[in-house]
Amino acid sequence: MKCLHNLVPVGMFFSLFLFVCSCKNSGKPPEKDIVSNEEQLDERVSKDLKKTLDYAEKNHAQINDSTTLASFRLVNAVYDERKYQSIWSQKDGFESMADSLYLVVEHAKEWGLFPEDYHYKSLQGVWSRLKKDSASQKDAALWTKADVLLTEAYFTIARHLKLGRLSPDSVTLKKDSIYNDAFFIKNFNEATSKSTVINTLQNLEPKYPGYQRIKSGIKSFLDSANFKPYTYIIYPYKDSLQFITSLRKRLAEDGFLPNGATTMDSATLAGGIQSYQRNKNLTATGKITESLIRVLNNTDWEKFKTVAVTLDRYKLLPDTIPATYVLVNLPAYTLYVYDEDTLALQSRVIVGSPRTKTPLLNSAISNFITYPQWTVPYSIIFKEMLPRIQRNISYLERQNLMVVNGSDEVVDPYKIDWSKLNSKHFPYLIRQREGDDNSLGVIKFNFRNKYSVYLHDTNVRWQFNRAARAISHGCVRVERWEELSHFLVRADTVRFPPDTLRAWMSRQEKHMVTGFPKVPLFIRYLTTDGKDGKLVFYSDIYGYDRQLKEKYFSGKQIS
Q: Which string of b and e fits 365-404 if b means at least 16 CB within 10 Å?
């Protein structure tokens, strides 16, 4: 009796378990629903659509154990609006627009997108069966799944093309509030009613020339890309053992170390590194360097994620392109001036170093000054100048610098006790006199910003010949400053006849030029561009791409 008594709670528990499971799975859509009469197929698909979406609504947007609808709210809304009629097929055949959308999913990488985000493998399996297997064509559950996956794919692709996948940042100009459910449902209805899926999706993309150049180069890149999975090496590293293990594995993947070696002496590792460096035209030192790790990580798959990040950065810009604007692309070390869809000017620039980054910003060039004075920022005074001045006051004279008090009067630096000055007590300004020796060069372009940065000339113009030009304190030095100044006043030939600016320069005259229409300025971080139908990649000088790829795309699979 004692044994039987102990078994009762166990039986009750098992019954309760079955009851809970049956409740959870109640209303679960059928995995298979064979319809013998072809005339009844659409009706059964409609019923299965209702069951599927009702189930998803109660189960966190899941239509089965492996598929969650990222755009469930939109998907559910359009089927409810259409009384759960199939959208992409009729009877036992797909509509032509379904073929178009399937091709978009299949070739999502050509749009800078990841096929897996649109359930490509699942859709591929359903698609193949419904296209090739006559028995499967009688399965209403399979047609239902295909319909839901296609609708889900459209909405998710549309959101990714219009808004991107990156969260808005401090320089985002796109107003997300207008891109609500109603916007995307209207877009979907237009695409499906007119069977213009591809064109309607393309119309969601940015129109900026740089975006279009990248899109034009993606296919060529993909045609030759090797998406073999490689080990990504975390650098700088916290775990030295894990770092060395990853490095050995990565070198073995390219054949520069033996495969499967669990132990390896330092000489063998150095030899593998040296061989790899020679192969990549790097200095063959055999030593671990940042540049070595950067090249090892620069696989085609990582490049594609760079493309995805860059395209999404364009999607944070406003939809309406200004007629005229200046774009500074920091990783490209280049300034572009666009005027009525035409590239009016392109100039090499020097930008902030990784320690003194040039800020990303939106502003407008409002005026420029010829032969400007430079008021040295306190950050530069305390970090660089003050220690040198305290060692030798003649540093000021050598750098053409003057000290100014609170009354804007020039002070004799030799009458100041520099040893008593520090970041907490410094009642002066330091300015650099105008002239060819001025760090701003002979011209400065002003625009409102909270960082006290500007575009300007430089007194070390030879640095424009350097390949890597992230070396300034944060301002942007412009090589073709003269052409930029002429462009800004091009419409005002009355006040600024030809050669006026050049004459001022020859006479070393200081002028503030205002009154021209303000020109929008975007300082951005775009590590991919297109040229002659090919993709061009720039160094991730500030590490911003690496952060975004790890946050948004690190778990993506090669497909």
A: bbebbbbbbbebbeebbeeebbeebeeeeebbeebbbbbe
Would you state the pLDDT for residue 558? 76
Q: Please give the angle made by the CA atoms of 359, 363 and 365, to the nearest 5 degrees.
A: 110
Q: For the chain, how big is the Rg over CA atoms in Å? A: 32
CB-based contact 540:101 (threshold 8 Å)? no
- Label residue 449 exposed, middle or buried (CB < 10 Å: 0-12, 13-18, 19+): middle
Cβ–Cβ under 8 Å, residues 337 and 482: no
Closest CA to 52 of 192, 152, 184, 153: 152
pLDDT over threshold 50, residue 126: yes
Contact present, 323 and 338 (Cβ < 8 Å): no
Considering the candidates 5, 107, 119, 456, report the single residue annotated as catalytic.
Answer: 456
What is the CB neighbour count within 10 angstroms for residue 70? Answer: 17
**% of the chain surpassing 70 pLDDT:** 94
Do 389 and 428 form a contact (C-beta atoms < 8 A)?
no
pLDDT band for position 263 (50/70/90)? low
Residue 425 appears among annotated catalytic residues: no
Q: What is the pLDDT of residues 283-332, one digit of tens each?
A: 999 999 988 999 999 999 999 999 999 999 999 988 888 999 999 999 99
Token pair in block for residue 61: 């947007």
- Give the CA angle between residues 545, 546, 550 to the nearest 5°: 115
3 state SS for 170-205: CCCCCCHHHCCHHHHHHHHHHHHHHCCHHHHHHCCC
Q: Which residue in 106, 104, 110, 205 sits closest to 164, CA to CA?
A: 205
The C-alpha atoms of residue 52 and residue 120 are separated, in whole angstroms, by 19
User: For 325, phi and psi rounded to 5 degrees?
Assistant: -160, 160
Give the DSSP H or E segment for 42. Answer: helix 41-58
Catalytic residue status for 456: yes
CA dihedral 101, 105, 111, 112 (to 10 degrees): 160
Q: pTM for this one?
A: 0.86
Q: Is residue 465 scored above 50 in pLDDT?
A: yes
Catalytic residue, chosen from 60, 119, 473, 475, is 475
